[in-house]
Amino acid sequence: MPNHTSLYANTGFISLLIPAVRTADANSTGLDLQDCDDAVLLFDVGNSADTLSGSVYIELEVEESDDNTNWTDVANADLTNYVTGTNPGTVAVIDAPAEDSNVFAVGYKGSKRYIRGVFNVTGTHSTGTPVGVLGLRGRNRQAPVNAYT
Length: 149
What we know:
Number of domains: 1
CATH architecture: Sandwich
Strand content: over 45%
Shape: globular
Low-confidence stretches: none
Order of helices and strands: HEEEEEEEEEE
CATH class: Mainly Beta
Number of helices: 1
Distance between the termini: 29 Å
Structural class: mainly beta
CATH topology: Jelly Rolls
Largest sheet: 6 strands, antiparallel
Number of strands: 10
């Protein structure tokens, strides 16, 4: 019989960007990856009240840092999935109504200590879109795992 508590017991999670309606660029706080071997960012995107198009869109990106202060785009090769966007490290380009109201997950395979989620907004977003970011840490080398959250 599978151990149904293993995922819960071995995964730390934290809200990195509190869900809110946003009309401009937003960066989450950094997820500290010290003493863990696996990380996932979950971008939670609600229904956009603006008309999304090729000139009004949102890009979801991942940045990395050694010190939680100086950030750079993550190389595409260091993500489990990516798309072509304005910058490397783009997880999704949301430019049509059928693409919002979704959760986008991306795993990090890089070597930096911190990662964060970035919402890049292009065009006029007068009403906004509810967005948020959760960070998950797995295969932790220190216990208890949930002491981080």
